[in-house]
Write a structure and sequence with these properties.
261 residues, alpha/beta, TIM Barrel, 11 helices, disordered N terminus, binds 1,3-dihydroxyacetonephosphate
Amino acid sequence: MTADRARRRKVMFANWKLNGCAESIETWIKTMAPLAEEGVLDIVLMPPALWMERARTGLERYPSRLALGAQNVAAWEQGAYTGEISARMMADAGACYALVGHSERRLLFGETDEMVSRKMACCWTAGLSPVLCIGETGFERETGETERVLKRQLGAVEGWVRPPPGKALWIAYEPVWSIGTGQAAGPDLVAAVLAGIHSHWAGLNATIHSQPRLLYGGSVSLANAASLIALEAVDGLLVGGASVNPESCADLCRAMIRALD
Ligand code: 13P
């Protein structure tokens, strides 16, 4: 391994979705913090919004390179939007990142490309790094639509990519057919799609200064985490179901750290 490669830390994002319990937050942080501190892996916990403050308290007890992220933010900064939580509120509660455009939000909650763009803008204003999720359905893949769909999802946010100094856009390739199905995309497919995203971005206009950091998500497990995190094109993994239990998530992180060492 070269010295350059040794310095390249990667990231594991733990998206708990609507899972877990408040009591397990501290155990999770206590178990995971040493792995984030000592290894070549940064770790970002994305708990249900109500537990963000509790997670922040946990981080104060176990300081490390572990950070917090929001699973969702409102598409508005403030106003009469009952039940919503703004990017600013998430930042105040301790979040550094926020998912925008997760396929579950798009498919189950009718989130449009326009809303995704607005959420991204709210993230920049609040000082959060947005993690834009894109991905095709199984039908779109079977009918040869993958590239068109991904370009549409990327194109929708192009005008809204304005990272302030020190912040980056993160893009997570999460094929819908792989989420929660046990059917992860293989390393060759992930490498090819991320290369496509990279070259698409490189061709954009000069107002978009920095290259995004690229993630893969969808049925990441102990069986595939090492081969996926080791890919040159991958800056990190976005893990759902396998991230909730602290012991199995720690095993997953150890497998990633071994693959990066
Ligand atoms: P799973 O890891 O449960 O497939 O979920 C992936 C995901 O949607 C992460 O955001």
